[in-house]
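PROTOCOL LOG
Step 1. Enter all chains and additional molecules of the complex.
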Amino acid sequence: MKHETTFALKGNICFSESSDQISVHENSYLVCENGVCAGIFKELPEQYHGICVRDAGDALIIPGLADIHLHAPQYSFRGMGMDLELLDWLNTITFPEESKYADSDYARKAYSIFVEDLKKSPTTRASIFGTLHVEATELLMDLLEETGMKTYVGKVNMDRNGPDILQEKSAAESAEATLRWLSDTADKYENTKPILTPRFTPSCTDELMQKLAEIQKEHHLPVQSHLSENMGEISWVQELCPNTSFYGEAYEQFGLFGGEECPTIMAHCVHSSEAEIELMKKQGVYIAHCPQSNTNLSSGIAPIRDYLDKGLRVGLGTDIAGGHSLSMLRAIADAVQVSKLRWRLVDDRLKALTFEEAFYLATMGGGEFFGKVGSFQKGYEFDAVILDDSFYRHPQPLSVRDRLERLVYLSDDRCIKGKYVSGRELF
Amino acid sequence: MKHETTFALKGNICFSESSDQISVHENSYLVCENGVCAGIFKELPEQYHGICVRDAGDALIIPGLADIHLHAPQYSFRGMGMDLELLDWLNTITFPEESKYADSDYARKAYSIFVEDLKKSPTTRASIFGTLHVEATELLMDLLEETGMKTYVGKVNMDRNGPDILQEKSAAESAEATLRWLSDTADKYENTKPILTPRFTPSCTDELMQKLAEIQKEHHLPVQSHLSENMGEISWVQELCPNTSFYGEAYEQFGLFGGEECPTIMAHCVHSSEAEIELMKKQGVYIAHCPQSNTNLSSGIAPIRDYLDKGLRVGLGTDIAGGHSLSMLRAIADAVQVSKLRWRLVDDRLKALTFEEAFYLATMGGGEFFGKVGSFQKGYEFDAVILDDSFYRHPQPLSVRDRLERLVYLSDDRCIKGKYVSGRELF
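Step 2. Run joint prediction.
Step 3. Record the structure below.
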């Protein structure tokens, strides 16, 4: 699809440059050149005279949000079955639903809904779990590609501890299917890339992990999985992997845990030990903090303040359908909210996250996994969302910064009036 | 306003009969006679042939929700200033905003927005704080009366520890203003009733409490206030009232703490002692559980499971603007969510609330404060809300009960297609 190579958006521009501050440029021009942010100006400099300007009026313009953990096939049951913990929830609700994606007609119907709603959301980048089914995962990638959003999508690997209806017969079969999927989709897409996706340690034999590690090296793939989400899960991993001293090692022993050659997202990290935290830091693992899911599944509250203080990489995820809302704006509010409860109830040495910090996590924090993404600083990819808050009436004057906070708390997809990814207008 | 005395709504009817179960009547008729629920029928019995039927199609019909704690003047700053605890938040944000309601023009502008949004919400009953200003509070009551919702509204009393801009000069002045307000509004409204509203113990001298107690007895008024929300607040009350052994006694010593002659709502009760809990039970005090506010202001999580086990009266409140959302559907989801975190982080002897229980709290739990309200059992007042969830697409068949849970989690005012209070159609 063609797009103007140089253009500007005009409005109230808000973005992070660091984790503790949101820069606000009222009624200004944000210029895009060849898909990249070229600058912010109160008046357009002469070199840009005559470029196309989309005037968003009094609306807010923020960087696109990066949802670094969610499950596309689970979107169908979001907001339902909310009275279970992780392992029961997987067996009772998740696995039976995911098994339906063996049927491509069902997958098409379900994924079309998911992809249309994701397109309307403030998310511009995402790292997404599919199911173990190659055909359905390719279908999901086809649909995502058309939207213009930039995503990683994973065909899930699982060869143990699943139900008969949702399990690959052997490590060999799982690896073979993965190679078929990679071959089918190689160079097929501009926006949609594969990511290696062992479901989590309880679902993958050592033999499978070994094969995936070989595939990872050969194809230079990034990796996504789950880590230290739930106490029952952690004990189970300890039983399954008696040779490891903590959960993260179950991935690390196969070379599937970060490092320069293996960019990795680990979802949750609610109950990570000091040793695990240290290893995540050393390996540059991205932590996908999913506060809504960790609440819904009674998992707990991850110590994000601690991770930030220690310099770890952290982004936010909606974790559909452990989380029920597809909105990354809601994820920002949730991150602040649960951090307050953690401060109050668990450890008052770890201060609650500020609004500025949570906004940073949803933009630059997770955006970094996709490159120079998540800010409007010069040289960042031009991912932008236009938010109209006129629906929320108020009797008093409000600062742009306060309007942004309010939008995040009252978030609603009616507010989203425009979306750009790498300079391309999606709507 | 006239309305048909006998009519029916047709759709998927969902309501509580007890705290552990939601009754579902698919594609059925809910008959209203003289403002009261007369029965639910799969086919209309002969006696009702020819009555007016509003066919809601595949929509859900639930009892109107009772919001038993919120502050109308704070609606203007909902979702902003979310990085403070209670006492700082009151001084920095709340009191300066409330002081503006001395200006009737400002009050009209602000309250019009609040009342219009409340009308569009799923709330049919509410117990609302105004400000200390008589004129603005009467204006709020005028606006609420017009909507047809049934509400209690309180002119706030506060004669100590406030800022100069928001404090009554003396107990006498506060009492006099209260009497003026009661006289102005006596017999003026069909739907809107006064409720005595000492802000909270730190804001009211003993002399004022004494005068309010006299007014309460003379005018047979119900009472609303705040209790044991925040640790700093509780310590402060202990200093202010050295003669009491717990916070609740600061109200009880003046006879402003429940009992048959003084129906009372106490908001929060996050940190109530055993003695306080016992007294609330004895006095039949209604606890307004406000999970979103208790999260936003880092107050903590009230032990609602414990209160239910002990047979206390509990309803839900949005607590605008400690809570940011006016939606009581959201309050239901929040109540479930925080109870899970409490189970996980504080006390795993207290099981999380189920969806059914939280739905009960928002309907029958709080509804009881208003009479036979909050259910569709025969003889209950006909408060009903029509919810259309067709906006939330899904690939699989769903039960009505699951659709209700999903609606609560994904709640959005676009779903609310109709609202009735005591049989009167608001829209």
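Step 4. Note key features.
The longest strand of chain A covers residues 6-18.
Chain A touches chain B through 50 residues (CB under 8 Å).
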